[in-house]
Amino acid sequence: PGDQEAGELGLAAVPGRQAAFRQGLEAAVHYARAVGCPRIHVMAGRVPLGTDRAAVAGEMETTFIENLRYTADLLSQEDMIGLLEPINNRITDPRYYLNTPHQAAAILEKVGRPNLKLQLDLFHCQIMDGNLSRNLETYFPLIGHIQIAQVPGRHEPDSPGELNFPYIFELLESLGYTGYMGCEYAPKGDTLEGLGWLRSYWESRGLQHGGTSKATK
């Protein structure tokens, strides 16, 4: 994430911070190797204070692409995947550089490395673009990780909000998603009690708690 006390939230697209980015990436790889985690979120970072987003967009993209190619080469030696997460700039972070899956997909195409993927947080995607079904279908080949939270409160999937998560989960199953689902939300109360949405979903799909089929028991 860079120097968070100084207002940084990632460095990969921040001009002039390439050396610090590489140092942070190497530290992240060290930790990921130690805990056996094969995926690293490569945070783009914020538009520098006092600058106009449009004026620095080209330089930031050039920096991002350069750093991502370096990242891909380093992670390929570790058999790891680098992830790019668009973060909405309407509610969460007005200065974050990477905001939509379309922007992320265009950058991934320019970088052209198979071990870099899209980290699609459905909370951010809904706020910026909506159209989740088509976006999931369109960008599914690029997706390396998915995160979930209800909109707009960013709480459990079964809390009041805009998103029909049982439908989304079934869509992901039909698309063949087999990865993890990151619960990127703030529990409204007790964490374990807040997982009732997951138990309800398993039961609706004829599964035991833990995601195993009753038919195999």
Order of SSEs = HEHEHEHHEHEH
Taken as a percent bin, the fraction of beta residues is 5-15%
- Structural class, by secondary structure, is alpha/beta
Q: Quick one: overall form?
A: globular
Order of strands across the main sheet: 1-2-3-4-5
Radius of gyration: 18 Å
CATH homology superfamily: Divalent-metal-dependent TIM barrel enzymes
Largest sheet: 5 strands, parallel
Q: Report low-confidence residues grouped into runs of 5 or more.
A: none
CATH architecture: Alpha-Beta Barrel
Distance between the termini: 45 Å
- State the helicity in percent bands: 40-55%
Mean pLDDT equals 94
Number of helices: 7
Domains, number: 1
What would the CATH topology be? TIM Barrel
Reading off the top of the CATH hierarchy, the class is best stated as: Alpha Beta
Work out the number of β strands: 5
Function: Catalyzes the reversible isomerization between hydroxypyruvate and 2-hydroxy-3-oxopropanoate (also termed tartronate semialdehyde).
Family: Belongs to the hyi family.
GO biological process, one term: glyoxylate metabolic process
Domain Xylose isomerase-like TIM barrel: 10-200
